[in-house]
Amino acid sequence: MASNTNELSFLDVSNTGILGIATMTSFLCSPKESLIFLNMSNNHFKGQLPNCWNHLKSVRVIDLSNNEFSGKIPTSMGSLLLVRHLILRNNHFRGQLPSLKKCTNLIMLDVGQNELSAPIPPWIGSSLSKLQVLSLTKNNFFGNLPLNFCHITTIQVLDLSLNNLSGQIPRCLQNFTAMTTKPSIMEGIDEFFVLQNGSALSMIWHDFYLVIKWKGKELPFKNNRRLLKFIDLSNNQLVGEVPKEIGSLSELVSLDLSGNNLSGEIPWEVGKLHALDFLDLSRNHLSGRIPSSLSKIDRLAVLNLSNNNLFGKIPLGTQLQSFDASVYEGNNLCGSPLEKLCPGEKELEGPVAVMKPEEEEDDSILSQGFYISMGLGFATGFWAIFGSLLLFRSWRHAYFNFLYTLYDRIIVLTIINVARCRKFCAR
Question: What is the pLDDT of residue 358?
């Protein structure tokens, strides 16, 4: 960090307990050509941000999260052409997002937990082609999801939960190709800075911790090897079906669509998400049966299908039977782990009673078919032969002559063999 404030490259005043904004306004509004990192998070800054961010032409990282900023987000932030991380989470910003379509280097945009209210701007999909993390959670965004969202092929964390979004989930989700490939150590969002102070060089590595709702709790997530591949559209007013195209996101780890107005059946393709650890489809209007493909997701640790219109037997498989019965409540389901038995199932009577497995039931059906076929075959053969003898007199004579001749031959052979045996035995 240089001694001249106009040559300042790295400024981190996070977690310092600074109050107010007046002391920072004059600093932000003076030219800072060399500033590339600004972290003012976790303080008590209040008031409205000055609209003079165009002075920070070289800035790559801005973190103003966890303060008490209010008012509108300054439109001059749209002139930060080199910014890669813009984190404004957990403040009191209101209004709409200013146009950031020129900030084409953004890989992380987090404005969650504010009071923003507007439709999601379409430039997010059309201009931010490098975006890996997008969090708009806990705001008042409304309207349909923009179709050009699917142009963000690099997206890995998408959190639009707890808004007033409506319309259908776009079917072009298979375009999120970063969620279809195995994680790489090169895909992280951490930043590496090389700073020059006179003739000396210093290197700074900055870690970014994502705050996401993980298994029902807001937790900071950090994995130095990879980003968590995550979609959360919960607690909105989305309608229509769960698109089957979501099954192509083979490396997706968490999917939360709960608390919407989704209808139709759970697509069989969801069972192709073999990396899935968390699946929540509760509090919708989903109908039909639970697809048997869900039982094949062996990594699934958390499941919630409660409060829908599902019916029928819960598919057999160690995975689905291992969950608590509460994850299926509010439906018309039967079978283990529920106490409600499906039609045809027998209730256990005593400790030694065992329900007949499906394999034995199938064997019994096969056995019945075998005996029926054998009986029909015997009856057909019997009447084909003896029926002919009864109808044709010449056949009867020939048949009985054959029997008499055969009988005589057997008697003669028997007498000869007995005589031979006595002769040899006498010697």
Answer: 41
3-class DSSP state for residue 1?
A: coil
Question: What is the residue-averaged pLDDT of the chain?
Answer: 80
73, 26, 18: which is closest to 46 by C-alpha?
A: 18
Closest CA to 45 of 16, 75, 78: 16
Q: What superfamily would CATH give domain 5-334?
A: Ribonuclease Inhibitor (3.80.10.10)
Residues 6+ apart with CB under 8 A from 239: 166, 167, 168, 260, 261, 262, 263
Task: Kindly state the tokens that stand for 349.
Answer: 């009577």
What are the structural domain ranges in the chain? 5-334, 392-427
Residue of 287, 295, 288 whose CA lies nearest to 270: 295
What is the CB-side half-sphere exposure of residue 94 using CA atoms within 13 A?
A: 6
- Per-residue pLDDT, averaged over 282-311, amounts to 94
How confident is the model over 33-39, as a mean pLDDT? Answer: 86
Question: Token digits for 400?
Answer: 């009985």
DSSP annotation string for 230-285 = EEE--SSEEEEPPPGGGGG-TT--EEE--SSEEEEEPPGGGGG-TT--EEE--SSE
Taking Cα atoms as reference points, which of 130, 134, 126 lies closest to residue 99? Answer: 126
Helix ranges (H only) for 79-150 are: 123-127
